[in-house]
């Protein structure tokens, strides 16, 4: 059940963050702008991507949105298509929202000129296309990108953001519970997706991902869920493993579990026991000030058991797929970052253990909040290897 104090957010016609929260975000971005030596920011999104637009204005990007931010002035937001403007004006009430016309970037350039933008004093944030970048540089010279600095801003969550993430985690749990309760022989992977989405769409949740892997436990051929569902039919003796993220607006949870349709084989028991041990070992070292290298070392129980991984071991989440992104000792994700974890970060612990030949694997894990003392669960879905009678 969702906490009662979160219901007013969930049940609002269109939920909004407080004025204090939105002002905090603007101050933070204006600070980045000043650090870059720039006077104006162009922030972009397209095709439902571009989290900065929603983070700064409250408008989730649909087809295209280009905004102009100038300290001490109202934001200008240019939205495509024309019929999207009325709702954008409601949700981005603190911005001057207009139709972007034939070109949203051209409208933004005109706004910058009206605001007296000078050469080499404009910065960008978000998904800037090659054409948009060319137009900006032709008009205003070199432009600075704030993307890396923005990602760092999103790593630490405010109290209000954590509440929205808890709702996203609740929706993700509902999706996983629907899979647990509804999976049965005869369903296809496509029908598993229908089970999952029906659990939260009616409550205001949106699908981020539902990845499924289905294979025979006695003749496994798949070690990691697929990003697109197949027509494979679930049968008795299968393992079904899944990674599910449902979001409340731009705030998702992420939960990973494995379900056996029948008695798990010894191999799968060993795989899941190792994954559980790795999860517990990682959770035990995570806290404010812990280092990424400690996480990788804690997860060496995977290699000690003779297994490995395919997926990332841990990653930041909420506002994007965020740093740190860590692989296991046997499947590195690149150089190990040397920055500590900090209280207020949300990360997904996901030791998805596989055999070394990548023919068998399990999924287990979930998003947690890092605190000064350790980690706090964001999800309520029970942990462990789920075994169902087929």
Please render the helix and strand layout as text.
Elements: H1 7-11, H2 19-35, E1 40-46, H3 51-57, E2 64-69, E3 75-80, H4 85-91, E4 95-99, H5 104-114, E5 122-126, H6 130-140, E6 143-145, H7 147-155, H8 159-182, H9 189-198, E7 206-216, E8 238-248, E9 251-252, E10 255-261, H10 266-285, H11 292-298, H12 301-304, E11 308-309, E12 314-317, E13 321-326, E14 346-349, E15 353-354, E16 365-370, E17 375-377, E18 386-388
Parallel strand pairs: 1-5, 3-4, 5-6, 10-18
Antiparallel strand pairs: 1-2, 2-3, 7-8, 8-9, 8-10, 10-16, 11-15, 12-13, 12-14, 14-16, 16-17
Commentary on this structure:
The protein is an alpha+beta fold and 390 residues long. It has twelve helices and 18 strands. The strands form three sheets. Strands 7, 8, 9, 10, 12, 13, 14, 16, 17 and 18 form a ten-stranded mixed sheet that branches. Strands 4-3-2-1-5-6 form a six-stranded mixed sheet, sandwiched between helices. The model has no long low-confidence stretch (mean pLDDT 97). Helix 4 (85-91) links the parallel strand 3 and strand 4 (95-99). The protein has helices at 7-11, 19-35, 51-57, 85-91, 104-114, 130-140, 147-155, 159-182, 189-198, 266-285, 292-298, 301-304; strands spanning 40-46, 64-69, 75-80, 95-99, 122-126, 143-145, 206-216, 238-248, 251-252, 255-261, 308-309, 314-317, 321-326, 346-349, 353-354, 365-370, 375-377, 386-388. It has two domains: 4-153, 3-Layer(aba) Sandwich (Creatine Amidinohydrolase, Chain A, domain 1), CATH 3.40.350; 159-388, Creatinase/methionine aminopeptidase superfamily (Creatine Amidinohydrolase).
